[in-house]
Amino acid sequence: MGTNTISEPLPVDREHALFLFREMLRIRRFEEKAAEMYTLQKIHGFLHLYIGEEATGVGAMQAFTPDDAIVATYREHGHALARGMPASALMAEMYGKATGCSHGHGGSMHFFDASRRFYGGYAIVGGGLPIAVGLALADKMQDRKRVTACFFGDGAVAEGEFHESMNLAALWKLPVVFLCENNLYAMGTALARHQSQINISLKAQSYGMDSSSVDGMDVLAVEAAAKQAAAFVRSGNGPFLLELRTYRFRAHSMSDPDLYRTKEEIEEWKKRDPISLFEVRLRDWGLLAESDVAHIESEITAEIDSAVRFAETSPVEPVEDLLKDVCARVKP
Amino acid sequence: MGTNTISEPLPVDREHALFLFREMLRIRRFEEKAAEMYTLQKIHGFLHLYIGEEATGVGAMQAFTPDDAIVATYREHGHALARGMPASALMAEMYGKATGCSHGHGGSMHFFDASRRFYGGYAIVGGGLPIAVGLALADKMQDRKRVTACFFGDGAVAEGEFHESMNLAALWKLPVVFLCENNLYAMGTALARHQSQINISLKAQSYGMDSSSVDGMDVLAVEAAAKQAAAFVRSGNGPFLLELRTYRFRAHSMSDPDLYRTKEEIEEWKKRDPISLFEVRLRDWGLLAESDVAHIESEITAEIDSAVRFAETSPVEPVEDLLKDVCARVKP
Amino acid sequence: MTYREAVRAALRKALRSDPRVFLMGEDVGRYGGSFAVSHGLLDEFGPERIRDTPLSESVFVGAGIGAALGGMRPIVEIMTVNFSMLAMDQILNNAATLRHMSGGQFGVPLVVRIATGGGRQMAAQHSHSLEVWYAHIPGIKVLTPATVADAYGMLLAALQEPDPVFIFEHATLYPLEGEIEETAELIDLNRAAVRRPGRDVTLITYGGTLGKTLQAAEHLAGEAIDAEVIDLRSLRPLDTSTIMDSVAKTHRAVIVDESWRTGSFAAEVSAQIMELAFDNLDAPVARVCSAEVPMPYAKHLEAATLPQVEGIVNAARGLVPRHG
Amino acid sequence: MTYREAVRAALRKALRSDPRVFLMGEDVGRYGGSFAVSHGLLDEFGPERIRDTPLSESVFVGAGIGAALGGMRPIVEIMTVNFSMLAMDQILNNAATLRHMSGGQFGVPLVVRIATGGGRQMAAQHSHSLEVWYAHIPGIKVLTPATVADAYGMLLAALQEPDPVFIFEHATLYPLEGEIEETAELIDLNRAAVRRPGRDVTLITYGGTLGKTLQAAEHLAGEAIDAEVIDLRSLRPLDTSTIMDSVAKTHRAVIVDESWRTGSFAAEVSAQIMELAFDNLDAPVARVCSAEVPMPYAKHLEAATLPQVEGIVNAARGLVPRHG
Ligand SMILES: Cc1ncc(C[n+]2csc(CCOP(=O)(O)OP(=O)(O)O)c2C)c(N)n1
Ligand SMILES: Cc1ncc(C[n+]2csc(CCOP(=O)(O)OP(=O)(O)O)c2C)c(N)n1
Ligand SMILES: [Mg+2]
Ligand SMILES: [Mg+2]
Questions:
Q1: φ, ψ (nearest 5 deg) of residue B86
Q2: 3-class SS letters over B79-120
Q3: E strands, chain D, where?
């Protein structure tokens, strides 16, 4: 039994707590299935798993409304699911089917969903930041109160596009929440081998931008920090840089031999698995029973199995349509 | 008569003082002549004058030995002269003659001199910084004790290449002295309109790099600061960012209508003309007599007149040699 | 009115008629534009719609893409095509791919204006013609207005396109005098124009070399060689039928293109004539391009690098003797 | 030995024999190279000579240029040609211009290795073939090793060049098996190779499509069409004489090129055949290129985008009937 006593109120209500727990678990199970399907050669190309980082995407996404815009990277399964994109459309995309969220044109790295203002899936590291700046510029010029959430990794911080985007967003006070998912590695290159200054949130100073860092393994802490950042940006103070400190449990991609870090290091971090950590706290607080977990697991299994069935049985886009989406057919 | 009394030693000896004074004046007169020749259509293309900024180039150049490397921008007449390149070769270059320092291939923006390790003359803003980083990398890998001086403007600070270069130089502790000549404008865009954080030396923090700022109108202060920076870098501490605060008295280039700043602002700054300021102090200190100035002026006039004669009478490169320097003719 | 004024007039008209339109780039505002194209627009439309950017080609082009995704109608100005290399990632990997990559869910109605070309002694970092690289990219349109009327009309038409349009303004054209047509309907971006009809040889060009090509045609007329001059106007899409109709008539063609010869757009046109009009050819298609050298500063060297009237005349002459 | 091992063997040999040589790029060290090309080199040569860089394409390519100016012999690896867009400024405006711009005072002995091409379902930001853009640039050399022997020999020869050399390694070739020749003298970088002699039609290609082209030739042989296959090997400089000699014999040619059709390198080759061998042609030169679409992810769509054996065979067949 834990430190909390009846006297102190819990930091989260049961419904929301179970929701966050379920969201993280959905992502975990979805990606485990994706990895399985990759080894079965149902999925090809690059597959970058988010396993271990679920708390950052799930926690952060709570700060954004359906009106807000999301810009992500090639490691975006978690963001897409947390944004509400159906698992079936994502699985079908990775199968290269016409029913995929990008009609099979993008695959794992390029998820899109106009109806949810999910602007993609950018696989040129740093390439999504200028897009986010532009989306925010459009909102500002049209006096919309919405914000743009821009996710990127620690490796992207070294790119010139990070610097140019931070400066322009701050200079023009644009409503962008920059969310750096610092998992300590850019592929095989450790943070200290690609950043001369490893404190990423400190870099906001160069742009007169506000920033903060948070434990990316604690979903409640991430949610709180992201809501603060989003509120700051929403009320017209300009952009904000939030560093989410996390860790990637799996290899960079399915083709990564993972030679650059020790098993011990990975095991150490797994002790801070965001899902287990949260599960323990919820049990601690008496918000989660054994039966709840079993129930959630079975619902998720059902959802993912049907996503796989959907992907398996969906048609592919006819080859005749190869050039259909290169340019618009009719002017808008 | 000034604040100094015989009791206190002067900060500079007469010979060196006259040298610095002469160097600044040479640049001023050289550029006045270049502007004249431009209006006479002897010189074409872009011509960017350094007038007003002479103390930064002259002061900074004192910190570097012939073994060190220099990387500059399209506004490099002052740096080239201060580095010891003959006025005749520079004037001939602007005339497009074969005797020019770049054989007439480069013009005003692209001065080069291998014998003085003057690596150019880069006209893509920010484009010289990666080159400087590479020169320093070569020195470090070959255990040479020399450093690379990299001059650039405040506008370059917004470019991604600045960010990438600062990070890599600091990460690998490379011997680069980054010299930012902050003249408060990038063409017609004032510092506060292109930088969200206008304190440029502060930006070094993002890279864990040491930095400082100095009054770029005070040649002795610049010299001292540059020598400090160079010594720091030379002794293996990695790169250093030195911000030189100055002002451009002339338009950005000969084709600039100069609509973006007031005459008053310019006049205010002209009161801090680095050459007059220094002249007053030297007289003050009793290091400079009326006759010295007249003598120096006449020597400079003679040098520049002969540079013009040289340029006028020099041959152009034969058209048959057009492709001669595209690739090396023989392997080294 | 000059070419410069025509572009400005089109900008002004677009800014007045569509609140979504704005202009963004280096020194487009207070400075008045490095080629004075946007002079005066800041006063009329204010800093929200005439945006001076920092020196950050990648982000201001990328922000143009994002703003277009967000419902605006951005016009981005890149001072010189050499600088556009710094934005090439955003152009190739984002602007051109987003519609297809998203399965048609997103479009990027962005217009980018880029000054291009040599002839002003700007040397090796300010003088090239890289239109052919842009024309290689599926998903975008590439326009090369060579007349005052096109400078005006193409910009307005480009602003109605649902996909990214890149407009190349050859820097030597800005002082060019001409007329614009104030018509309600938009001009057709997909058609090349026959600028001079002729029977003996087809001279095909675009952008900055149209003037030299027309001069060459006049000169050839003096030698009783009747040259037809085609201005491609758009490199992507390319109007092949106008080219092939002309070649079917003249049976010979010279392509004049300021870009370096190897991998020039002239090569593409030559290859297409080969593929579509081989049996109509009485002589091999010739190319007049720039010499393969980074642009030299010296006037005589730059002149020797660029296509010139004499070279065009000689190339045409070289084909015609084979005739009849 | 595989193509991957051949590149590694050349790297190892160069690193052992020349202290000025070093390798720099993203994840070339601890990760072992994104295509495992440099696997093991960090252990043998250490982090000073096998340098993992931050994600900063512009500065690590620019630093390669600077290090070359400073007396080193850098080999820079760019993971994928699409990423090289981020370094295009350094490549076009600095690497290619410095020798000429400086009046011949400076040279840039830099080697850049770039993985290129499609066929692995990497979609629209990892799969293109932009060799033609590089081949357009004066002042550099552009190599496209298509065999294991060339993967080895060309890298070693490139390291003796006084100017920048860009080597494009098609990512599908890394597992290719073959032999390398351990010769003292360097291989000739300026000659194309006839990979299969033939009389009826010349199939011209380079890089990743050599294999498909040879398969097509075998297939054509079954139809009694004797195809000659030319591997260009170097796109800049281009060995036109080998091409023209072959066309003089076969009188017809098909160019196979994985890049997008418009502005492809195939267009340049076609234009040159037009200019240098027009009278030898019995049929228009044909091109087999990639469809003009950002590379789709789905296997069947990617296959439909890329040149395939069947398309090459059809193109060749289309020319030969005209014969005799
Ligand atoms: C411009 C660019 N360079 C290199 C790559 C290859 N690459 C893909 S992901 C990656 C590491 C990115 O690390 P980080 O930004 O920390 O994101 P993470 O993968 O850790 O989530 C690299 C080098 C790329 N996709 N784009
Ligand atoms: C990449 C790039 N973008 C734009 C330009 C056009 N341009 C030339 S100089 C300049 C301003 C540079 O300002 P700064 O770096 O402060 O140097 P200064 O001219 O003040 O010495 C601009 C915008 C260029 N040469 N390169
Ligand atoms: Mg990371
Ligand atoms: Mg400045």
A1: -65, 135
A2: HHHHCCCCHHHHHHHHCCCCCCCCCCCCHHHCCCEHHHCEEE
A3: 21-25, 50-52, 73-78, 111-116, 141-143, 165-170, 193-196, 201-205, 227-231, 234-236, 253-260, 286-290
Least confident range from B109-123, C250-264, D174-188: namely D174-188
Chain B contact residues (CB < 8 Å to A): 158-164, 166-168, 170-171, 193-197, 202-203, 205-209
Asked if residue D273 and residue D245 are part of one domain, the reply reads yes
> Does C56 fall in a domain?
yes
Q: Catalytic residue among D77, D126, D251, D268, which?
A: D126
Residue range A118-164, pLDDT digits in tens: 999 999 999 999 999 999 999 999 999 999 999 999 999 999 999 99
- Residue B181 Cα to ligand 4 midpoint, Å, equals 7
Mutate to test the pocket of ligand 1, among A161, A165, A187, A260 (most ligand atoms within 8 A of CB): A187
> What does B242-286 look like in DSSP terms, one character per residue?
EEEE----S-SSTT----SS-HHHHHHHHTT-HHHHHHHHHHHTT
Structure tokens at B23: 């160097």
Contact yes or no for C111/C198 (Cβ under 8 A) = no
In a domain, C185, yes or no: no
Mean pLDDT by 10 residues, chain C (324 residues): 98 98 98 97 98 98 99 98 98 98 98 98 98 98 98 98 98 97 88 98 98 98 97 98 98 98 98 98 97 98 98 97 50
The whole-number average pLDDT for the span D95-115 is: 98
pLDDT at A330: 59
Cis peptide before D138 (omega within 30 of 0): no
Indicate whether A3 pLDDT > 80.
Answer: no
On the question of pLDDT at D228 being above 50, the answer is yes
Instruction: Answer whether residue D180 is part of any domain.
Output: no
Q: Which domain holds residue D118?
A: 3-173
Q: Is D39 a catalytic residue?
A: no
Residue B284 sits in a domain of what CATH number? Answer: 3.40.50.970
How far apart (Å, rounded) are the C-alpha atoms in residues A10 and D250? 84
Model ipTM value: 0.98
Q: Between C and D, how many residue pairs show a Cβ–Cβ distance under 8 A?
A: 147
Chains touching chain C through at least 3 C-beta pairs below 8 angstroms are A, B, D
**Rounded distance between C-alpha atoms, residue C9 and residue C18, angstroms:** 14
D160 and D280 together in one domain: no
Chain C residue with CA closest to B323: the answer is C293
Q: The sheet that has D141-143: what strands, in order across it?
A: D50-52, D21-25, D73-78, D111-116, D165-170, D141-143, D234-236
pTM above threshold 0.90: yes
**Gap between the Cα atoms of A282 and A276, Å rounded:** 10
Q: Which domain holds residue A279?
A: 14-314
Which residues on chain D place their C-beta less than 8 Å from a C-beta of chain A? 26-27, 29-32, 34, 36, 52-58, 82-83, 86, 120-126, 291-294, 296-301, 304-305
Would C118 be classed as within a structural domain? Answer: yes
B164 Cβ under 8 Å from any chain D Cβ: yes
For residues C176 and C210, the answer to whether their CB atoms sit within 8 Å is no
How far apart are alpha carbons C97 and D292 in whole angstroms?
11
Q: How many structural domains are present in chain D? A: 2
Model confidence at D182: pLDDT above 90: no
- The pLDDT tens digits for A190-245 are 999 999 999 999 999 999 999 999 999 999 999 999 999 999 999 999 999 999 99
CA atoms within 13 A on the CB side of A178: 38
C208-234 confidence digits (pLDDT tens): 999 999 999 999 999 999 999 999 999
Residues of D in contact with C265 (CB under 8 A): 263
CATH for D261: 3.40.50.920
Domain tally, chain B: 1
Residues C38 and C144 in one domain: yes
